[in-house]
């Protein structure tokens, strides 16, 4: 197998949470371009339908499962759909996330807990649901999506920073647990990308300028800029890479 062959994931089946738009959609399309079919999960069915159309345009099958990642039933349905309709599950991308910015004294507990639930408990539920399949086939790839805010702190984002640091810790612990079973577990930590989630940054010129001053590459990310790293971490090319956090941030975390 040549080095470039090792990036192919032909006929593998991926499960991508938060695949309705933004980074998750770009990941599903990138995985399709590398050969994989996918099941995409989000709450909005109209967004999911658009992703399905784009993956099919790339020549692969794609099935939408609507639901909240925090609900264990969503993970169960997604895995059953992958195995029942597409025949298997090989890749899990835990991408669904929620962001919140509030001063800690006035943050309602339910808001704080919801950020942890979507980013961290959703990741746990989907990972738990693919576990029996990955272990039975002695292979599989898990890619968790954290953030540069799991590496450094930003005021008023305590829940998000805690959750994303938690995703990084979860990645390392799971890699210890599943690595010996032949399962790859890694994490990507995006910097600023232009999506619905980051719209507030792009609408606030001062905030945007401040963030851009800390990005050595001098540009923000577009969703397609994350796809190659995710394909790599889902492919045999990354088989000897385990428990790592790959920052895809234009260099924001290097100084
Ligand atoms: N954009 C950035 O600058 C940036 C930077 C660092 C890290 N990240 C991380 O990258 C990931 C993707 O972010 P993004 O920018 O693409 O966000 P986005 O544009 O807001 O898209 C998020 C996707 O996740 C889905 N989702 C959210 N909550 C969900 C839930 N409870 N259950 C099921 N699906 C849910 C959304 O669909 P529904 O609303 O229809 O459910 C949507 O499809 C997140 O983990 C985020 O924290 C983003």
Structure in words:
- This protein has one domain: Rossmann fold, CATH 3.40.50.720.
- With 255 residues, it is of the alpha/beta class.
- It has eight helices and seven strands.
- Helix 1 runs parallel beside helix 2 and helix 1 crosses helix 8.
- The radius of gyration is 17 Å and the shape is globular.
- Bound molecules: NADP nicotinamide-adenine-dinucleotide phosphate.
- Flag low-confidence runs: none
Shape, principal axes of CA atoms? globular
Q: Can you say what the CATH homologous superfamily is?
A: NAD(P)-binding Rossmann-like Domain
Oligomer: single chain
Structural class: alpha/beta
- Helices, by number, come to 8
Bound molecules: NADP nicotinamide-adenine-dinucleotide phosphate
CATH architecture: 3-Layer(aba) Sandwich
- Provide the β-strand percentage band: 5-15%
CATH class placement: Alpha Beta
- Along the chain, the helix and strand elements come as EHEHEHEHEHEHHHE
In summary, what is this structure?
The chain is of the alpha/beta class and 255 residues long. It is built from 8 helices and 7 strands.
Keywords:
Rossmann fold; 255 residues
Secondary-structure blueprint of this entry?
Blueprint: E1 13-17, H1 22-33, E2 37-42, H2 45-57, E3 62-66, H3 72-86, E4 91-94, H4 109-137, E5 140-145, H5 158-178, E6 183-190, H6 199-203, H7 205-213, H8 224-234, E7 245-248
Parallel strand pairs: 1-2, 1-4, 2-3, 4-5, 5-6, 6-7
Helix pairs in contact: 1-2, 1-8, 3-4, 4-5
This protein binds NADP nicotinamide-adenine-dinucleotide phosphate.
NADP nicotinamide-adenine-dinucleotide phosphate (NAP) is lined by residues 18, 20-24, 41-44, 47, 68-70, 95-99, 118, 145, 147, 190, 192-193, 195-198.
């Amino acid at each position: 197998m040549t080095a470039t062959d090792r990036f192919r994931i032909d006929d593998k089946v991926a499960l991508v949470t938060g695949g309705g738009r933004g980074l998750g959609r770009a990941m599903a399309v990138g995985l399709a371009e590398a050969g994989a079919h996918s099941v995409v999960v989000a709450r909005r069915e109209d967004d999911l339908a658009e992703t399905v159309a784009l993956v099919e345009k790339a020549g692969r099958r794609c099935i939408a499962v609507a639901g909240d990642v925090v609900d264990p039933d969503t993970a169960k349905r997604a895995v059953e759909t992958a195995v029942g309709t597409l025949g298997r599950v090989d890749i899990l991308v835990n991408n669904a996330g929620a962001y919140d910015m509030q001063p800690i004294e006035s943050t309602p507990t339910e808001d704080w807990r919801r950020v942890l639930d979507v980013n961290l408990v959703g990741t746990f539920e989907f990972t738990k649901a693919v576990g029996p399949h990955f272990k039975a086939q002695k292979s599989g790839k898990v890619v968790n999506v954290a953030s540069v805010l799991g590496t450094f702190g930003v005021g008023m984002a305590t829940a998000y920073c805690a959750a994303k640091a938690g995703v990084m810790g979860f990645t390392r612990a799971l890699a210890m647990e599943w690595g010996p079973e032949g399962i790859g577990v890694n994490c990507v930590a995006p910097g600023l990308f232009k999506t619905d989630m980051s719209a507030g940054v792009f609408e606030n010129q001062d905030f945007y300028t401040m963030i851009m001053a800390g990005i050595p590459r001098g540009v923000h990310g577009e969703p397609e800029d994350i796809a190659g790293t995710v394909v790599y971490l889902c492919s045999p090319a990354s088989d000897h890479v385990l428990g790592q956090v790959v920052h895809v941030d234009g260099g924001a975390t290097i100084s």
